[in-house]
Write a structure and sequence with these properties.
alpha+beta, Beta-lactamase Inhibitory Protein, Chain:B, domain 1, four-stranded antiparallel sheet, 4 strands, about 35% helix, elongated
Length: about 120
């Protein structure tokens, strides 16, 4: 009997390796992760105010998908790109799927595609 129990215990990982067990009851699956992320990013962006500090925005929104920095004569510009809309179902985030947030000298001066055409 001990041998039978030992044999079962050793073969269980092999026999059960193809099983998937859902414990959270979430039916959304993979797609809800990116949908939730995009929704949260849009929600945060819609509540932004001009002049908000870079640190405060990053504290609310987290790490950007892309970041650019440009030093010019009139100041330092930083652009953070946050994913807000999926265009391709390829699992890769592009700048075209993101909304840019433009900062000058650490303060938010605009967002969206019209905020950064000169940079």
């Amino acid at each position: 009997m001990k041998h039978l129990a030992l044999l079962f215990a050793l073969s269980a990982p092999v026999l059960l390796s193809g099983c998937v067990i859902s414990v959270d009851g979430d039916d959304h699956g993979y797609s809800s992760d990116w949908e939730d992320r995009e929704y949260n990013n849009r929600k945060h962006i819609s509540n932004l105010n001009l002049g908000t500090s870079y640190e405060r925005v990053v504290g609310k929104m987290g790490v950007a998908d892309f970041s650019e920095l440009d030093q010019r004569e009139d100041g330092t510009y930083r652009i953070l790109y946050y994913r807000t809309q999926r265009t391709m179902d390829d699992g890769i985030t592009t700048k075209g799927e993101c909304t840019p947030l433009v900062f000058k000298n650490g303060e938010l001066i605009g967002w969206g595609s019209k905020a950064s055409p000169h940079l």
